[in-house]
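We emphasize that the prediction below concerns an isolated chain of 144 residues; any contacts that depend on oligomerization or on bound cofactors are therefore not represented. The input was used exactly as deposited, without trimming of termini.
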Amino acid sequence: MKKIIHTIVPFLLIILFTYAAASKLMDVNRFRSQLYLQPFSHGIADVLLYVLPTGELLLATMLCFNRTRFTGLLLSTLLMAAFTAYISMILLHYWGKVPCSCGGILENMSWPVHLAFNWAFLLAGVTAIILQLSGNKREQNDLI
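Result of the prediction step, given as a token string:
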């Protein structure tokens, strides 16, 4: 079961981040417009315009290689936590109604469904990290 989680979770994150970045980059003008509708300044939106798709592609790349997979998994889980917190704040009406700056199929999700989707990826990431750390601890104990 651990091996399946160690294989499937990074694979799913690679697909998610590659798809998300590609949908942003394929229609940059639309992504920019969506960012400008968010509850932060246009200056921050302009930074996110480049940082989000670049970061998503970087994370997807990190998850492809054994040497960087664990760091990629940690950073991916942190990013999913940030996205999940953002959507939670939207659902709690912290800013009022905010349009989604997601692309493709994610754009058609309701906020509650989007939150559940993010929680699923967040929990998958946390589970994979915990299993990885517990496996490393056992390996270290075997060496002692």
